[in-house]
Amino acid sequence: MPDTATTAPAPSDATGRTGDPGRAFGAVALLLGVAAILFAAGILVGFVVVGRHGGGPIQGWDDTVNRWYVAHRGPLVGISKFIATWLDALPLGILCVVLSIVLGWRWRTPRALIPAVAYFGGEFQVFVIRAVILRHRPPTADYPAPGAVPGVHETSYSFPSGHSVAVTAVLFGLLGCLALTRHTWWPWVVALVGSLFVVDTRLVLGVHWFSDVVLGLLLGIAWGVTVAVAARRVEWADCRAALGWRPGRSSV
Q: What is the pLDDT of residues 22-71, one digit of tens each?
């Protein structure tokens, strides 16, 4: 009599796709490898271009851009303050977790985890790079300093911009997955336009240097695209196969 514990079929998803642990391990390896590369790139740019504690070769350009934005804010201050508040670390993190839960209920695939993985992976990059580079924000980031916006008080380390990394990663993760699934280009454009708008609001408020948001945008794009690609490669059946789970396996 055959042993069901050894002859049970490999896990499969709702479409009958057989789980392949190699796909799951490959997706994890891709995410970890790119995360390590992005961390190294961020540290390298921080030391060589920005300078530890700031004052690097790009500081003159950063000062010029900061002065220009302070003098040309216009009507974008209100929407910039709104985005700064509601797309800050805590509210954006809660939004991404809730969105992943909702998408998990609707999609029932690992692609539902894109918002959470894109957000937390991006925020981790920001945290570790900031802890090494220790760059202070522009004086205009903390009211009532000259040129600061009333009600704006941002005093954490500046490089790279957390808003730029996290929002860009989530947009490129979600819309990039849509673009890869439907083999179309327009979601990439929407993600880029949305990311650039968020980047611009950080400069409008004077809470980041130009180099903070540029590196943040590039890190966010790279991480978001990586999450989208990894999510397209794997299904739950692959994850279950990687963990050794078999339907109907007996524990005795």
A: 888 889 999 999 999 999 999 999 999 999 999 999 999 999 999 999 99
| Residue 159 host element (H or E) | none
Contact of 201 with 213, CB cutoff 8 Å: no
Confidence band, pLDDT 50/70/90 cuts, at residue 90: very high
C-alpha 121/C-alpha 33 separation (Å) is 12
What angle, rounded to 10 degrees, do the helices at 210-233 and 186-204 form? 150
**Domain residue ranges of the chain, discontinuous segments joined by +:** 18-242
- The values of phi and psi at residue 196, to 5°, are -65, -35
The CATH code of the domain at 18-242 is: 1.20.144
Predicted TM-score (pTM) of the model is: 0.89
Could you identify the residue written with the tokens 């739950």?
A: 236
Residues in the chain: 252
